[in-house]
Specification:
This protein has 267 residues and is of the alpha+beta class. Helix content is 30%, strand content 31%.
C-alpha cells in the first residue's frame, strides 16, 4: 500500500483551504497513492467564535466535495477532520471514503484538548466540541486501519484497543501545537507504533494560523519497529510512503509482545 500525507497550513478561508487540499490530493494521486490523509481541521482554523458558524453537517459541502475527489481519483481518502454540526452539538469528526466514493468510516474525536501550554496559552477544545465515544476501524482492501485524532495520541489505551481489534495501520490527523510538538510529537508517534507493532501515519497542520496559533507539522510515517520511514519538510508539503505488511508480520513473529500481554491482569 502507498500512503500519502497532505501537510497543510489551514487558515480561516474555507474555499482556499479546500483548493489547497484538492491540489495536494491530486499530486499524491498522480504519484500512485492508494490512501491519502488530510490533517485535523483541514477545512477551517479560526477563532472559537467562528467555529460554530463554520461547522458543517455530514454529508455537507466540504465533505461532499472530497467524496467526489475520492471517486474521481479512485483513491481511499481520509478527510482529516472537520467541525461537524449535529443538532445543537459540534464534533471534531473524521470521514473516510473508498475508491468508489462510498463512506467507509466515521470517527468523532474522543479526547478533547483542554490544556494550558507553558507561556500562558490556554486551549479549551471542549468549549465548542463534544467528545465522541466510539472506537472506529475500517477495511482498506484487506488491511484493517484504526482512526484517532491529534490529542488522542496521548492515550495509549485507545491504541491498544485498536491493536486488539487487529489493525495494521493507525491514522492520526492532527494540529499539534509547536510548543508540545517539538518535544512530544515524534516520541509519542514512535511509541504507539512500537508498543502496538504496527504502522502509524500522522498528518499534521504546519505554521501560523489565526489567533497566533502555531502548529508543529513534521507529518510522518513510522514503521512497526518505530523507525521514521517518511517525514514532511517544514511548510506545506506532501509525503508518500510504501507500507510493507509482510515486514510488519515478520516483526510481530520475531517480537511477539502483543501475544505476551497479561489480559488476566490488564484486560
Amino acid at each position: 500500500m502507498k500512503i500519502g500525507l497532505c501537510q497543510m497550513n489551514t487558515q480561516d478561508n474555507k474555499e482556499n483551504n479546500l483548493k489547497a487540499a484538492e491540489a495536494a490530493i491530486d499530486q499524491l494521486a498522480a504519484q500512485g497513492a492508494d490512501l491519502i490523509v488530510l490533517p485535523e481541521m483541514f477545512h477551517f482554523l479560526g477563532r472559537d467564535e467562528e467555529k460554530v458558524t463554520n461547522a458543517e453537517s455530514i454529508p455537507g459541502p466540504s465533505i461532499d466535495r472530497l467524496q467526489r475527489k475520492a471517486k474521481e481519483k479512485k483513491i481511499f481518502l481520509h478527510c482529516g477532520s472537520i467541525l461537524e454540526k449535529d443538532g445543537n452539538k459540534i464534533y471534531n469528526t473524521s470521514v473516510v471514503f473508498n475508491r468508489q466514493g462510498e463512506r467507509v468510516a466515521f470517527y468523532r474525536k474522543i479526547h478533547l484538548f483542554d490544556v494550558e501550554i507553558p507561556g500562558g496559552v490556554v486551549y479549551k477544545e471542549s468549549a465548542v466540541v463534544t467528545p465522541g465515544k466510539d472506537i472506529v476501524t475500517f477495511n482498506c482492501e484487506g488491511i484493517s486501519i484504526g482512526l484517532s485524532i491529534c490529542y488522542d495520541l496521548r492515550f495509549p489505551e485507545l491504541y491498544r484497543r485498536l491493536a486488539d481489534g487487529g489493525v495494521s495501520l493507525i491514522l492520526i490527523p492532527a494540529a499539534f501545537t509547536l510548543m508540545t510538538g517539538k518535544d512530544h510529537w515524534e516520541t509519542l508517534i514512535r511509541a504507539r507504533a512500537i508498543e502496538n507493532v504496527c504502522y502509524v501515519a500522522s498528518c499534521g497542520q504546519w505554521g501560523f494560523h489565526p489567533i497566533n496559533n502555531q502548529c508543529y507539522g513534521h507529518s510522518m510515517v513510522v514503521n512497526p519497529w518505530g523507525m521514521i520511514i517518511a517525514q514532511a519538510r517544514d511548510g506545506e508539503a506532501t509525503v508518500l510512503a510504501e507500507l510493507d505488511f509482510e515486514y510488519m508480520r515478520a516483526v510481530r513473529e520475531k517480537l511477539p509482545s502483543l501475544q505476551h500481554r497479561r489480559k488476566d491482569l490488564f484486560g
